[in-house]
Amino acid sequence: MSRSVDAAAVASPCTSVCAIDPVTGLCCGCFRTLDEIAGWIDLSATEKRDVISSLKTRRSKFGAAIEARMDNHAER
């Protein structure tokens, strides 16, 4: 299997909630950085899996604070 076919087999974690939290620099939907989002297509399957494996920890660590900031911003 070629690298591009193998890499394409790893689905993007995008949730179509595309907003970057200004404090953490993480997407409020998928918890990736802008560099990870922009470079996704060029990452190997292993690199994509590494990013995906870090998302649960990021969500646990930053999710509540990001959600609170999003709620505060929406109320304005």
Describe this structure in words.
This protein is an all-alpha fold and 76 residues long. It has one domain (3-75). Helix content is 57%, strand content 0%. It is built from three helices and no strands. It has helices spanning 3-8, 34-39, 45-75. The model has no long low-confidence stretch (mean pLDDT 91).
List keywords for this structure.
57% helix, 76 residues, mainly alpha
What about the largest sheet? Answer: none
How large, in whole angstroms, is the Cα Rg?
Answer: 14 Å
Give me the strand/helix succession: HHH
Low-confidence stretches: none
Q: Determine the fraction of residues in helical runs and give it as a percent range.
A: 55-70%
Q: Mean pLDDT, nearest integer?
A: 91
**Oligomeric category:** single chain
- Find the count of extended strands (DSSP E, 2+ residues): 0
Question: How far apart, in Å, are the first and last alpha carbons?
Answer: 51 Å
Overall tally of domains: 1
Structural class: mainly alpha
**General form:** elongated
Strand content: under 5%
- How many helices in DSSP terms? 3
Summarize the structure.
This protein is mainly alpha-helical and 76 residues long.
List strands and helices in order, with pairings.
Blueprint: H1 3-8, H2 34-39, H3 45-75
